[in-house]
């Protein structure tokens, strides 16, 4: 841990800065409980010396990383606690960091932005909140000066009870501090339906034209439903993403939902059949019911080939048949719901029930291709963002060498190279070209030419069957 940053110590002196005087980047502390009077104020107490080491002033926001990251305001420890290497925090902060008393957490300084918007949702279905402007300004008053990170819980006292809220989204993203100018939005629903993935378009390498198409088909209709209505344009009901494994279909669906500011209801095909044995149809109905209530929303049916195997081919045809027809019913009745988008993904398009692909259902089919050299370079950039690379690592060169590698393979390659670096030297601070070369031995490309051909053939087949098909790319 404790590495050195470039921040000179902030005492303003002109003396040359020796490494000892520089501030540490992070420190590991042991979690202890908060004193009663400090509880639920978003405060933690740590040694003044530790604060100084980290370049933190009293009242600054610090990042606390346990199983999860969270943020809190740093206050000096009680005199009795000095030198014990502990951080006192209340149960809410412990929960936000995913730790218990006695666990270790990493502490570091963090830059915060002023929160423009904070979206909250009640974190427990046992409360039903109907929000009006009085209520939101009450909540805002409670939260002013509070540091928040998406996914955090906060307790708001309401009529003598502490009601848990979850921070569903903040604008800007990342650590923010609530000010009296912040707009608080309270979603009138339990938080479990309001999970929005944090993936953004910048996390996707390559696929620019695919992203553009998804923006047109999904993001714009969700964001500006009135516009589409006025112009009389019918957005598609369903978009099917297909392509070889590990090339970013799931990633793309998450990014689109996130960037559309929509709720994201994701379900994997195999889960529908296994998790709700005997109740699969009800599960589908339930998913779409939620999607309608909590619109705008994106329903994401991942690995849809396993929900909907071509009828008659598999043994348990009755279950899948009923599930398919329930799905069709839902898609057919989605008409008036411009603010519900349905995205499905598969790497086995040949197994997807053809009834699902008829016009008015999944009638936009988008190929998520294997990454070409340029895309591989971008994917390498995405996945080496936080990797300290030696100067001999040339990403252009690596992009050339990774022909046949999927995005997931490239991610694995980078991880492997970093692991090799650590294995060779636990204090390694750079990942070198040699580490990458060694990693190539263990991480092989997963995309064979044969496989790519299979996807191309599939699309030419459905093109014949459904000539008016909306297929991207338009060949
Ligand atoms: N284009 C990409 N840019 C950046 N990372 C990528 C890209 N494609 C894949 N990855 C990495 O690989 C992981 C797996 O990708 P993803 O789950 O989106 O693949 P998929 O196409 O859904 O595969 P499958 O068909 O197996 O479900 C991603 O979480 C991401 O880290
Ligand atoms: Mg996937």
Describe the structure.
The protein has 475 residues and is α/β, with parallel strands linked by helices. The strands form four sheets. A six-stranded mixed barrel has the order 1-5-2-4-3-6. A six-stranded parallel β-sheet has the order 15-16-17-14-18-19, sandwiched between helices. A four-stranded mixed β-sheet has the order 10-11-8-13. The chain is built from 15 helices and 19 strands. It is globular, with a radius of gyration of 26 Å. It folds into four domains: 19-110, Beta Barrel (Barwin-like endoglucanases), CATH 2.40.40; 114-191, Roll (Vcp-like ATPase, Chain A, domain 2), CATH 3.10.330.10; 201-370 and 458-472, 3-Layer(aba) Sandwich (Rossmann fold); 373-442, Helicase, Ruva Protein, domain 3 (Orthogonal Bundle), CATH 1.10.8.60. Adenosine-5'-triphosphate is lined by residues 204-207, 245-251, 345, 347, 368, 371, 379, 382, 407-408, 411.
Quaternary state of this entry equals single chain
Give the name of the CATH superfamily of the largest domain. Answer: P-loop containing nucleotide triphosphate hydrolases
Mean pLDDT: 83
Strand proportion, as a percent range, falls in: 15-25%
Number of domains: 4
Assign the CATH class of the largest domain.
Answer: Alpha Beta
Alpha-carbon distance between the termini? 52 Å
Number of strands: 19
Q: In percent, how helical is the residue content?
A: 25-40%
Contiguous low-pLDDT stretches (5 residues minimum) are: 1-20
- How large is the count of helical segments? 15
């Amino acid at each position: 841990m404790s590495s050195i940053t470039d921040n000179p110590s902030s005492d303003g002196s002109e003396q040359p800065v020796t490494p000892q005087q520089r501030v540490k980047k992070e420190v590991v502390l042991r979690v202890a409980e908060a004193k009663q009077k400090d509880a639920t104020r978003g405060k933690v107490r740590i040694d003044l010396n530790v604060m100084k080491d980290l370049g933190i002033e009293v009242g600054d926001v610090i990042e606390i990383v346990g199983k999860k990251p969270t943020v809190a305001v740093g206050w000096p420890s009680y005199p009795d606690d000095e030198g014990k290497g502990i951080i006192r925090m209340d149960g809410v902060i412990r929960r936000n960091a995913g730790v218990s008393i006695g666990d270790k957490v990493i502490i570091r300084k963090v830059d915060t932005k002023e929160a423009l918007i904070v979206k909250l949702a009640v974190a427990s279905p046992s409360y039903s909140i109907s929000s009006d402007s009085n209520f939101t300004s009450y909540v805002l008053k409670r939260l002013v000066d509070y540091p928040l990170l998406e996914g955090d819980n906060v307790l708001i006292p309401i009529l003598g009870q502490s009601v848990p809220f979850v921070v569903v989204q903040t604008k800007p993203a990342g650590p923010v501090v609530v000010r009296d100018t912040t707009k608080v939005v309270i979603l009138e629903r339990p938080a479990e339906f309001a999970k929005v993935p944090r993936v953004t378009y910048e996390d996707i390498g390559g696929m620019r034209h695919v992203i553009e198409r998804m923006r047109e088909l999904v993001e714009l209709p969700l964001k500006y439903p009135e516009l589409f209505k006025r112009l009389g344009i019918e957005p598609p009901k369903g978009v099917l993403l297909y392509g070889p494994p590990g090339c970013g279909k799931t990633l793309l669906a998450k990014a689109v939902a996130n960037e559309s500011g929509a709720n994201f209801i994701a379900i994997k095909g195999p889960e529908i059949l296994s998790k709700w044995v005997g109740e699969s149809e009800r599960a589908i109905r339930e998913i779409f019911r939620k999607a309608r209530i909590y619109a705008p929303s994106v329903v994401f049916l991942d690995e849809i080939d396993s929900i909907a195997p071509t009828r008659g081919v598999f043994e348990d045809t009755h279950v899948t048949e009923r599930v398919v027809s329930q799905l069709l019913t839902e898609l057919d009745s989605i008409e008036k719901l411009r603010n519900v988008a349905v995205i499905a993904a598969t790497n086995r398009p040949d197994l997807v029930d053809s009834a699902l692909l008829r016009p008015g259902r999944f009638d936009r089919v988008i190929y998520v291709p294997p990454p070409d050299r340029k895309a591989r370079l971008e994917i390498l950039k995405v996945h080496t963002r936080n990797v300290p690379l030696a100067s001999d690592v040339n990403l252009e060169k690596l992009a050339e060498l990774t022909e046949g590698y999927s995005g997931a393979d490239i991610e694995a390659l980078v991880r492997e190279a970093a692991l090799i670096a650590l294995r060779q030297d636990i204090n390694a601070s750079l990942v070198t070209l040699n580490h990458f070369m060694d990693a190539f031995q263990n991480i092989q490309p997963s995309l064979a030419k044969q496989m790519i051909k299979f996807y191309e053939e599939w699309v030419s087949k459905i093109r014949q069957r459904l000539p008016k098909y909306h297929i991207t790319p338009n060949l």
